[in-house]
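Trying the structure run again after the queue cleared.
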Amino acid sequence: MRLSTHPLRTALSLLGMLLFAAAARGADLPEYRLKAAFLYNFAVYTEWPAEVGNKLNLCVLGQDPFDGELQQLSGKVIGTRSIAVQNMTTRKSITDCQLLYIAPSAIGELPLVLGALNGLRVLVVTDSPGAARDGAAINMAVQNSKILFEVNLKAVQDARLTLSSKLLRLAREIYP
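Done. Tokens:
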């Protein structure tokens, strides 16, 4: 599995993720600034197939809780792909996303979203209790002033994606 053409870039990205995880413990940064950093690292440590093209659409379904933090990711490059951030109020265009964050305001739509994305290469990320068990690929949570995440491997495999073992080692829980 090749995550980057630059081993140094891969190492620096992993270091950045570890630093963000450590920073999450101190609660010095706003919760959604940290979650935006986690979303970026989820994209970095996902193996994206060639058919994705040169752009990774990071979409937010529902009311955007990031207060502009995700816009700072727009244009950042992961490998040969640049990130484009899109806010969506309906499920209409979610099939154009590669990384889909379902905001707490839209979590009730999770079953419909998963049905619409069945078999498509979309990494679904949430931050709602139980969402990974309910089919989201990755679910973030705050526990003891620390941001943690859990992974649903079946959901990742159903999306025909692969997560780096480096990312999986940091997961609080992995569901088969």
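The longest helix spans residues 7-26. Worth checking whether this holds up in the mutant runs.
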